[in-house]
Specification:
The chain is mostly helical and 145 residues long. The chain contains three helices and no strands. It is flat and about 75 Å long.
């Protein structure tokens, strides 16, 4: 009597690219091919230039938000270090440093709220740019074929 074991084979360790990633790749390919061709329809050229501008805008948005996230993380780490540097409170009922520690924790909470706000703003901005890119890609496809 033999026991059958299931064999699991991993086909790909990389996750499947999302729709927005595929859209961006297609747009970059369209822009790259458009630069190689000359003497094409001016409307298609206009759409390709608009796509290039939209992709550039998306890249700049990523860079700005990466810098913001990095800056917020740096500030949060500095505040966390400031809190940890405080000596443990002496065994008395009232700690004179308690207001300062609470103030630092409040600043960390404020930074966390700001990070969330920037993350939401990033998602909204990125979605607007991707919607525009999708619209341009559809126009290009309609005019091309």
């Amino acid at each position: 009597m033999s026991v059958r074991t299931k064999r699991i084979r991993i086909l790909s360790e990389r996750p499947k690219p999302s729709f927005s990633q595929r859209l961006e790749q297609q747009a970059r390919e369209i822009v790259r091919r458009g630069r190689q061709r000359e003497g094409q329809d001016p409307i298609i050229s206009l759409i390709e230039r608009d796509m290039a501008l939209t992709l550039d805008h998306l890249d700049r948005l990523r860079d700005v938000h990466a810098e913001i996230r990095s800056s917020l993380m740096r500030h949060e780490c500095n505040l966390g270090t400031a809190i940890l540097r405080r000596e443990p409170p002496p065994p008395v009922y009232e700690d004179p440093r308690l207001p300062e520690r609470d103030r630092l924790r409040d600043r960390i909470r404020h930074l966390d709220e700001e990070r969330r706000r920037w993350s939401v703003q990033y998602v909204r901005d990125r979605q607007a740019i991707l919607d525009r890119l999708l619209s341009l890609a559809n126009r290009h496809r309609q005019l091309r074929y």
